Amino acid sequence: xxxxxxxxxxxxxxxxxxxxxxxxxxxxxxxxxxxxxxxxxxxxxxxxxxxxxxxxxxxxxxxxxxxxxxxxxxxxxxxxxxxxxxxxxxxxxxxxxxxxxxxxxxxxxxxxxxxxxxxxxxxxxxxxxxxxxxxxxxxxxxxxxxxxxxxxxxxxxxxxxxxxxxxxxxxxxxxxxxxxxxxxxxxxxxxxxxxxxxxxxxxxxxxxxxxxxxxxxxxxxxxxxxxxxxxxxxxxxxxxxxxxxxxxxxxxxxxxxxxxxxxxxxxxxxxxxxxxxxxxxxxxxxxxxxxxxxxxxxxxxxxxxxxxxxxxxxxxxxxxxxxxxxxxxxxxxxxxxxxxxxxxxxxxxxxxxxxxxxxxxxxxxxxxxxxxxxxxxxxxxxxxxxxxxxxxxxxxxxxxxxxxxxxxxxxxxxxxxxxxxxxxxxxxxxxxxxxxxxxxxxxxxxxxxxxxxxxxxxxxxxxxxxxxxxxxxxxxxxxxxxxxxxxxxxxxxxxxxxxxxxxxxxxxxxxxxxxxxxx
Length: 519
Known about the structure:
The protein has 18 helices and 16 strands. The chain is α/β, with parallel strands linked by helices.
């Protein structure tokens, strides 16, 4: 974005060439160099001027450069400057005076003195009812987009986002009649259009048939899982979580109940054994086990449901990658679609298939469960933003979502096939797996390898980002050799170079027996 105003400007001077040069330098400091990869240039200009006025750096009656002068100074189009000026004139921040120019029209807001906190104060550590920060956390660089080789799971490649189709959907949802439909307070309801699109075009792909009162929209699957923990898990509720498994779910459960068991996971996902039999609630990733990517076979899914029926277990199915079906073959029905007794609660999301920043997820559950969730959600935030819901509903209804999945799937398959072809030669001492349509590889390095240390070295020295796998285990210190390699965020042409840089950091092991065998 444009640099903030740095100098307090007075009236524009016309006292000679020296002053003209002076003023030119001052205005250039105000606006800086336009960021041609960021927001629209006229938006950047408006933001810079508004910031100058609101921070008391441009006072009433200060004259701005003419559109011709500013366009020449910044190397941008004159129409761009005119558009920015006109918008601020329309909003009353600037005023156009005939034959005189553009001037600041309003006084900057008065600023109250900043309060300096007193030394000492409350002992906050003694006031906290819980300490979430004390739990192991999945950490990814906030500026991951600036790294050249982001092998991260769950992030997205901006080049894959359907920008034009999304803009069309947002525009369609922004017509006056549409706004009248979503701008009001829905209290604890959801956008009816989105619920309808979920029922007609999204859930049937997974074999799930649900009525409107069995669906609730959430701010991503993260909120969905959090609300289900709050609703279903008491202080003494016996709960099962996968090991290895999704770290945030393990943290949520541990903050709520003292009775947590780590469920056994093998090559086919969670094992329906005696550890599971003693639980009242289990949080499972059946479609793609997190983080191993294992797809649970149909026979085991039926065994799992039979055990849940016998022992009265509620299952929360986190189907986070459900729409990512780009490897072909017959998709196995999700657990919810096979459930005859309604004891499976289904959690879905658009984060992995479309964009994590959209923050739209949903829960499919029996109507009494959804009714309680609506009240719980209302106490937290009433409902997710209705404009986002309506825009997404329009995006699906226009066929854009289906088209996006097809286009995105073709790119992801190319990336997956490329990585699979490179791993045997570049990481010959590692074992790996990626089940059909998973968007990451789960990789096991030889015993004794510290992938957390290697990941940090790869980040610092080469800009290669990958995810150490120890965070997914109940005992991280015993799983330092594992790591996850995602490919939704990295451009295809950077994959081979990134893997070669990573391979150069891996320790050499004598007596190689395998060449990148699958787990």
